[in-house]
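Bug report

Summary: structure tokens for Probable cytochrome P450 4s3 differ between web form and batch submission.
Environment: batch mode, default settings.
Steps: 1) Submit the sequence below via batch. 2) Compare with the web form result.

Sequence submitted:
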Amino acid sequence: MDLLTINSLSLMGLAVLGLFLRYLTTILEFIRLIKWSSTVPGPSIGELMENAKKGRKCCQAPLLVYKFLRICHILHTKAFSFWQRTNPFFKYTEPGRERDACLRILHDETNRVIKLRRKMLEDAKIQKMADTENLLDNIGKKKRFAFLDMLLISQMEGVDLTDREIREEVDTFMFEGHDTTSSAIGFAIYLLSQHPEVQQEAYEECMILEGNEKENMPYLEAVIKETLRLYPSVPTYARYITEDLQVGKLTLPKGSNISIMTYLTQRDERYFPEPEKFDPQRFLQKDKEQHPFSFVAFSAGPRNCIGQKFAMLELKCSLSYLLRNFEFLPVKDFKPNALPELVTKSGNGIKIRIKSRGN
């Protein structure tokens, strides 16, 4: 090898080293970002980059949300298709394979979150409930633990809880809570835009109770309930009968499956006069004046919605923030086309005009 070749290689090596040193800070920052992204829910940076290279549609929205919407569509279609519902080979069909692929992604995310929380408890040396008694948060108050933490600690204490049972509980909170809430918010702001007098009264209450959404907000809660009466986030749900059930003159035999049509039940004129009218005042009446099972947006009885209180708090916080900052104005001749899928959606979207309140 002659001197000229050696000098050329040396110069190339120095150039590569110079480039490496120039971008060293950026490289280290990228590595830190990848490590950090593995601790939060959602697709990893690598998954997003891979999806972007393949031009997948799911890159236009969070991967988990896209997969959740796809599996909802598949299950809804299957429920109304005789062929798909009765086909023992459904899992080998194209929608069956897509369903299983979506489930793997959703379950992998749930398992990742559970693994992360379990490691956090192990690092904090928490193995039983007694270990949580004296722990304080960042502002010196007693630390509150998430529902998942309580399940994992109970499992450590010997409660008969399998990993699958824990995952099913986490699935309920992670995937059943976001789409239902966004549906309710969408229909609520539409109804508020159509009824300025209701919107004004709700706005005044939100201004008075700003920052105290955890407290009782009777009018806004009535607005939310009336929204869910007209457009229930879950339009139908099923129950399995464990013993013969008498309904009027009809006897439903043990072992039957029945469906409760929330959308229709909450339009019964016996309990809701002028059922198509948006009137939050219905829910400001005394409890004794309303049938306890006339409003079943969160189901009822011992198997009612486990996240009901959290959902109401989430809706109050979101809507009160929006009402304090924006005025919702109607779009002429627009009415949402409610579609009773697994979660009620508007087939033509939600159209409103928004005006800043300047707060």
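Above is the batch result. After comparison, the two runs are identical; trailing whitespace caused the diff. Residues 55-61 have pLDDT under 50 and may be disordered. Strands lie at 236-240, 245-247, 250-252, 257-261, 326-329, 338-340, 344-346, 353-356.
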